[in-house]
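Long-time lurker. I teach an intro course on protein structure, and each term I like to show students one example going from raw sequence to a predicted 3D structure in token notation. This year I'd like something fresh instead of my usual example. Would anyone be willing to generate the tokens for the chain below so I can use it in lecture? Attribution to the forum is fine with me.
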Amino acid sequence: MTKSKKKENSSLIDVRLNDIQGIHPAIQNAVATTADLIYASAPDDYSELAIHYLLNLHPIHVAKLEGQLHVIAGFRSYELACLRLYEEAQLTCIMHSGLASEELSDIAIIDIAGSPIMHSLGPKYVQQLQTLAQSFSHRASLLFPKLKSIRRIRGQKKSSD
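-- Reply from a regular --
Happy to contribute to a lecture. Here you go:
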């Protein structure tokens, strides 16, 4: 990890979604290069309740620049929040201060590259989703509408029954 001359601090803050101005300018190019990544889930695959809890489990990370909040990590969480929640929705974010420009870039890259690796189901994706759907039954399908019909899961091949 790179060392900064300033001490980095982070704390939890509650903000309205529309208080976040977008991606931090120092990392916009890094984020833009991966804008065409295709996620296995679409915004409608989550209930509003699921999104709120997921945002608490995987918070948006922000930093202030000229008095305005900008996203430095949690880009997928931010994208889902923007697509599924009201602008006035209250979110708990992690506020970072005292980060050097290189650290901003490192955090962004770790989020963009590391999060999918850490959270990936790996091989036999559809079978693993079926196991999740069966394990949590009706409640899982309410929270994640995608699990109601296994046919809606991208990447599934048609069976030859």
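Some talking points for your students: The chain has two domains: 9-120, 122-161. The first strand starts at residue 9 and ends at 16.
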